[in-house]
Specification:
The complex is a heterodimer. Chain A is built from eleven helices and 17 strands. Chain A is of the alpha/beta class. The chains are: A alpha/beta, B mainly alpha.
């Protein structure tokens, strides 16, 4: 007789498979290909929340993207175009994104009053102003701590960097290195996830068995939280190794690879999708570099050309796969760019009136919150800052940002307690 | 072994009663510190004494703690074989004098002071060399810290000392936070903008008072040889105003204040006379009163309790794996030291020892507290009742201690109120003083501007005059030449030109000269304007002075109240911890008692179940017997039945015959009636009649027989009924019993699962107890290796360190033959070889720090384990290359050791600094004997497995 209890439902079976995949990881069975179909992704989508951040490194021009002012002295040469949401217009440099506008929420009244790259980036990613005597964890570390399941085989905080190596970032402050980012340099898997040549699988399993036996004998004398953490780190490492294919974007269907495109940002977006489907909690994708003091317009044609297609494809995929309800998407920069166009056809740093884009999770679809004046020089409605946004990101995925973390017995506010979320953008 | 009898509870109580008062222990001055340490800890002990660690474990522990790496196999073998009872003390002395000890201590100081911050202005290498030299010379730590706290970077010899300030960007708040944490054991950061929200004892005034030492300091950048060089320069300080972001209109003023003391008195110099070297462009000013120098002196001279206790606590933590106050930067009355008395003893002894780190560490290493094993002692498992009653006794004091703490807190709050009121009275006067000073500063600036203008003017005149003079000279020489060469017209013209120009410039100078008097007047006037502002400042100061003094008096009262509050609170908290510890002890005892009871019940239940099972068998047999009886009865009944059936059949047949005879007779009789007298018929009739009669008689007999047979059937039938009933009864009995057995089985299963739950509970109770005993230093701690300890331990045990050292030594011997046997020279050479070895190997240390250390500027003491570390050790090139066989290393020795037992011994002694157990030896021997695995591969599996085991990762 077929049991019809909900525990045998497809979703539950999926959960069990995922769980077993985790358990079996060290036994070499792996858990790959589990969430690659849209159906599986949809099953996954109804539960755990995830966050993906697109960091438009250098400072994306809001005027060439989300908040165009065509026909004004500050507007530049580009027109604005209709989007899938009547009444919301964005720059003609984002034609594909315009067709996804019904999924997006433009927060057009951002004023962060910080025009320094480092400080601005710090504020946008930590939700706090940088102070000399205090250091705050980045959004990814906060999400990893608040949202990632403890037994997740994938790192809770993943940053796909445009280039460079891998390794652990210094971005978790008092939350500790457990929540620091693991960098995927140009999309490469984390460091040290392949066995060196001379260590065969059987050697590796034999030496790990021996390690466990030796540890167990020792721990029968004395076992503490730190010894447990140490032993567990090897289990996690084994799980991560067994999940290494999760980082291999070439395993995505050829059709999808073609659809996204072969350039770096496209690969990184597809990798982000893959990682989210494999159960990653936080993924950050960087697109570099928007710091266009010279030739702002030519640069934006080029950069946004890459971004438009890859990002629009990503959003459409998540929506189609039913993942948007559980995935928060954020597009941010350290700041925007000056309405004033300088002598070199460039725009400089501008933090007083710019735009951040959110989508998914509890974020309202197809709205523009906040408003700048005709020339884009001031926020005239719905002004928010980095701290409001930080609260909002977390609340959008169900994390009570007014709560505290317990850090080694000390209560530490999750987000700036002096600030609050932007209610209007959440549903 | 001792038992947790009332005696030990008495000790607990005694300790509680002694809190805050000078105890017998503290008065035992003449005794060595290590004895006094153990006296205090033993006095507070709960439960039996934990045995000391064995020799092997002790030597590994000591080596890791003093030189940062485990012993070599030869050192270990020698130590184990040594029969000298003083061998542990000798090992302590040997390791403290090892060249690596200085490096280990310098590393610990570096990490503590800089928390792995990157270099901004002072090269890390210079800084480390500075610390290393101090450690090699065993300089008093207070002197070293005084230099660091006083450093401005100007003295080239002491420039590295300025790294603490300069590489924190000279940021006063960051410096305040870290001076508080690192030097005073208090993380006051959350008291920056308001009183600490969670820690009552961390007041905004403490933070601001400490900050006031640094607000006059600033980063001075000078261009030197084309490079920007930073200095930590200082101006004269004034009042630092602050207010709480939580309280409106609550203005406070402070000058420098060192933890535990009142605002420091400062000399007041007349305005304009505050400096030995006045501030100027590119000049580092030298104030007559330097707050930073005052801090450096006051903190480190031995009289500041916070400084002394912090340093003692940090050295203690370095050895013991945990501070008496823990976390190390969270000293406050609600988080008191585990043994307040002991911290006082350690701090005062550190002062007595003149901050000699080696001498101090030596005492710690000799204490039994340091030598404790990590294993929780077996529970004696009795007297839980007595312990509980002692606990009650202890708890009965909670209320009075709580009341005392609350009363002291109330008194403190009132004192704070009075102090704040005095402060409020001062605020307007201080503001007036600031304003007066502002006016003075403006006037002084005007004066200095006027003076500058005058100076510039005079300089201009001088310059013009000089030009005029040169031109006049040139003109004279030109005229002379023109006279000698009259044909050269150009010469005369040029001379003429020089002359005209020189005259013009002379006129210009004269007219400039006219303005001089005016400018000089301006200077005089400006100077005259300064004088009244100076008077005004002094008047304002005079007005403020008594108010300041009143504030200081009130602050002194407040401080006394604060100390009283702290003492009462510490007494309460220590009392609570004792209760926790005793409760944990009792909890374990009671769980063990429950386990014993459950075990007894289980046994009982098992034996009952056993009996029942025997009875089940008997019942089954009885059923079978009853069934056999039934069967026999049935058989008997069947036999009787068959007899009765036979009788019935005989009777029936006889009756049938009779019936046919009767019928024949009747027919014959009728025929005789028709043929009367027929003789044949008559004969026949008579024969038939007699036959019938005969038959009738026979039937009667048969009937009798049948009756008898039927009678005989009855008893066996009854017997069958009875036997069937007996069977039924037996079956019912068995069913009833089976139910009983099931119930017994169920209760056994319940008991077993309860035992299992209790066993889990016991594990967590044991862990809890072990934690509390460890925190109380009655039990050895598991100490995670620092990134450096891990790195050097791996290099040491894989033979890389010793191989490199040997190579460096032989290269040195070639390049620079040994200079002789003079101990100083020998030691210098040892240090040189150590340095060369370090330099050769340090390249890979950075990789370990990157993977195993917390982020730059974050606290470095919290252990963490991440998968990327495990991946680094599993798949990274470094570890895998070091475990490969190389001449003389453990992998190599094992490969070439024919005796697997010896190979196993080499392995464990080298990697874990202990011999293997029999099982461990067998495990290694079995694998080495297996033909399936190549020996080098097997050996490396073992080495890697031990290197990555928890036993290696922790010092124990």
């Amino acid at each position: 007789m077929k049991c019809t209890y909900s525990c045998n439902g497809a979703e539950h079976a999926m959960a069990r498979r995922q769980f077993l995949a985790g358990i079996a990881a060290s036994a070499g069975l792996g858990g790959l290909g589990v969430f690659t179909s849209p159906l599986a992704a949809e099953q996954l989508s109804s539960r755990r929340k995830r966050v993906v951040v697109f960091n438009m490194h250098g400072g994306l021009s809001q005027l060439e993207s989300w908040d165009p002012k065509p026909g004004t002295e500050t507007g530049g040469p580009f027109r604005s175009i209709e989007t899938s949401v009547p009444g919301i217009r964005i720059s003609e440099l984002l034609p594909e994104v315009a067709r996804q506008m019904h999924h997006l929420c433009l927060v057009r009244g951002v004023n962060t009053s910080e025009d320094d790259h480092g400080k601005g980036a710090y504020m946008m990613l930590t939700g706090r102003r940088q102070t000399p005597a205090a250091d705050y964890p980045y959004l990814g570390a906060v999400c990893a701590k608040a949202m990632a399941p403890g037994d997740s085989p994938l790192p809770g905080h993943i940053v796909i960097t445009p280039g460079g190596g891998g390794g652990r970032g210094a971005d978790s402050a008092y939350l500790g290195p457990r929540y620091s980012s693991i960098a995927l340099g140009n999309g490469k898997p984390p460091q040290n996830t392949t066995r060196p040549g001379q260590v065969t699988e059987s050697i590796d399993s034999a030496r790990n068995d021996f390690r466990k036996r030796v540890s167990d004998r020792f721990l029968s004398r004395r076992r503490t939280a730190v010894t447990e953490a140490y032993v567990y780190s090897y289990e996690q490492a084994a799980k991560l190794m067994s999940k290494r294919d999760a980082f291999d974007v070439s395993r995505e269907p050829a059709r999808d690879q073609d659809r996204y495109g072969k350039y770096d940002l496209a690969r990184h977006c597809l990798l982000a999708r893959r990682l989210l489907e494999q159960g990653a909690t936080f993924v950050q994708v960087s697109h570099s570099n928007y710091d266009t003091h010279n030739e702002n317009f030519n640069f934006h044609i080029e950069q946004l050309g890459e971004f438009d297609h890859a990002f629009a494809t990503f959003v459409a995929d998540l929506a189609e796969r039913g993942m948007l309800d559980s995935t928060l998407i954020v597009v941010l920069s350290e700041f925007g760019r000056t309405p004033n166009i300088n002598l070199y056809y460039g725009r400089d740093h501008w933090s007083r009136a710019w735009t951040v884009v959110m989508a998914g999770a509890k974020v309202q679809r197809g709205i523009a919150h906040g408003k700048t004046n005709a020339k884009g020089t001031e926020v005239v409605d719905g002004q928010v800052d980095h701290a409001n946004l930080f609260h909002t990101y977390l609340q959008a995925v169900g994390v009570d940002s007014t709560d505290n973390f317990d850090v080694e017995g000390r209560d530490v506010p999750i987000a700036d307690p002096a600030s609050r979320l932007i209610k209007q953008v959440l549903s | 072994m001792n038992r947790p009898t009332p005696r030990l509870l008495g000790r607990v109580l005694a300790l509680v009663l002694l809190m805050g008062a000078a105890s017998a222990v503290a008065s035992d001055r003449g005794k060595p510190l290590h004895v006094r340490i153990d006296e205090v800890i033993d006095a507070a002990r709960v439960g039996p004494e934990v045995p000391l660690a064995g020799d092997a474990e002790y030597l590994r522990r000591l080596s890791l703690d003093l030189i940062g790496m485990p012993p070599s196999i030869d050192e270990l073998r020698g130590f184990i074989a040594d029969q000298d009872p003083a061998k542990r003390a000798r090992a302590v002395d040997r390791l403290l004098n090892h060249p690596l000890h200085a490096r280990h201590l310098a590393t610990m100081l570096d990490v503590m002071l800089m928390e792995r911050r990157p270099s901004l202005h002072v090269p890390e290498a210079d800084w480390f060399q500075y610390l290393l030299t101090a450690c090699r010379e065993n300089r008093p730590l207070n002197g070293l810290f005084r230099e660091i706290l006083a450093a401005d970077g100007l003295d080239p010899k002491l420039r590295p000392a300025a790294r603490f300030y300069l590489d924190r960007g000279a940021e006063p708040n960051l410096i305040t936070r870290d001076v508080g944490r690192v030097f005073l054991g208090r993380d006051l950061q959350c008291a920056h903008c308001h009183d600490h929200p969670l820690i009552e004892d961390y007041r905004q005034a403490d933070y601001q008072g400490l900050l006031a030492f640094f607000t006059p300091s600033y980063e001075l950048i000078r261009k030197e040889a084309g490079k920007d060089v930073a200095y930590f320069a200082e101006k004269a300080g004034g009042d630092l105003a602050f207010d709480s972001v939580f309280v409106k209109n609550d203005k406070h003023l402070t000058r420098a204040r060192l933890q535990g003391g009142a605002e420091l008195a400062e000399p007041e110099y007349p305005p304009g006379q505050e400096y030995k070297v006045a501030p100027a462009e590119g000049v580092a000013p030298v104030p007559k009163h330097s707050r930073r120098l005052q801090l450096a002196a006051l903190a480190t001279e031995g009289g500041n309790e916070a400084f002394n206790e912090n340093l003692a606590n940090r050295l203690w933590a370095m050895m013991m794996g945990r501070g008496l106050v823990h976390p190390l930067d969270l000293a406050h009355p609600a988080n008191p030291p585990s043994h307040p008395e002991l911290l006082r003893v350690l701090a005062s002894e550190l002062v007595t020892l003149k901050f000699d780190a080696k001498a101090f560490l030596r005492e710690l290493a000799l204490s039994r507290a340091y030598q404790r094993a990590i294993d929780l002692p077996a529970d004696p498992g009795d007297h839980p009742g007595e312990a509980a009653s002692s606990l009650d006794e202890l708890k009965s004091r909670t209320d009075s201690l709580t009341n005392a703490a609350e009363a002291a807190q109330e008194a403190y709050k009132q004192a704070v109120g009075a102090w704040n009121a005095a402060e409020s009275a001062l605020v307007p006067a201080a503001t007036a003083q600031d304003q007066a000073y502002g006016k003075y500063a403006a006037a002084a600036k005007k004066q200095s501007d006027a003076q500058k203008a005058l100076d510039a003017h005079l300089a201009l005149i001088k310059a013009r005059e000089e030009v005029g003079r040169i031109l006049a000279e040139a003109a004279a020489k030109g005229q002379e030449a023109a006279k000698k060469l009259p044909a050269e017209k150009d010469l005369a013209a040029a001379a003429e030109k020089f002359l005209t120009r020189s005259k013009a410039i002379a006129t210009e100078a004269q007219s400039l000269e006219k303005a001089t008097a005016g400018k000089a007047d301006g200077v005089k006037k400006a100077a005259a304007e300064v004088t009244p502002t100076v008077t005004a400042v002094e008047a304002a100061r005079a007005l403020a002075r008594p108010l300041r003094e009143a504030v200081v008096r009130k602050e002194r009262t407040t401080l006394a109240a604060r100390r009283a509050m702290a003492q009462a609170r510490v007494a309460l908290e220590v009392h609570k911890r004792r209760i926790d510890l005793l409760e944990a002890w009792i909890a374990r005892e009671s769980i063990e008692a429950k386990i014993a009871a459950a075990n007894r019940s289980t046994l009982d239940c098992r034996s009952k179940l056993g009996q029942s099972e025997t009875r089940s068998l008997a019942l089954a047999a009885s059923i079978n017997a009853r069934r056999a009886e039934l069967k026999a009865a049935e058989q008997a009944r069947l036999t009787a039945k068959s007899a009765s059936d036979t009788a019935q059949a005989a009777l029936d047949r006889s009756n049938q015959i009779l019936a046919s005879v009767d019928a024949a007779f009747k027919a014959t009789d009728s025929a005789r009636g028709l043929l009367p007298g027929d003789p044949t018929l008559t004969t026949a009739a008579s024969q038939l009649k007699s036959r019938a009669d005969e038959l009738r008689a026979g039937a009667k007999t048969l009937q009798t027989k049948l009756d008898a047979a039927l009678n005989a059937l009855k008893p066996p039938t009854d017997q069958v009924t009875l036997a069937a009933r007996a069977v039924e009864a037996a079956i019912a009995e068995r069913t009833r019993h089976a139910n009983e057995v099931d119930a017994a089985r169920k209760s056994l299963a319940e008991l077993e699962s309860r035992s299992k739950a209790l066993a889990t509970e016991l594990i967590s109770a044991r862990e809890q107890l072990a934690t509390l005993l460890g925190d109380d230093f009655q039990l050895g701690q598991l100490k995670p290796l620092t990134p450096e300890q891990l790195f050097w331990s791996i290099l040491k045990t894989t033979g890389v360190y010793d191989r490199t050292r040997a190579a460096e030594e032989s290269a040195l011997n070639k390049a620079k033959p040994s200079a002789g046997k003079d101990p100083a020279l020998v030691r210098a050479r040892e240090i040189e070889i150590e340095q060369l070895t370090f330099d050769k190997l340090k390249g890979n240390l950075a990789s370990f720090v990157r993977v195993y250390a917390a982020g730059a500027g974050q606290p470095q003491g919290d252990f963490f384990a991440t998968p990327d570390q495990a991946l680094f050790a599993s798949n990274g090139g470094l570890v895998n290359s070091w475990i490969a066989p190389a001449p003389g290393n453990v992998s190599d020795r094992m490969i070439h050791e024919p005796d697997p037992t010896k190979a196993a011994r080499e392995l464990y002694l080298t990697l874990l600094s202990r011999p293997p157990s029999a099982d461990e030896t067998a495990e290694v021997a079995a694998a080495l004997a297996s033909p399936a695995i190549a020996r080098p591969a097997a050996v490396q599996e073992f080495v890697w497995g031990l290197l990555t085991s928890a036993e290696f990762r922790f010092n124990h």
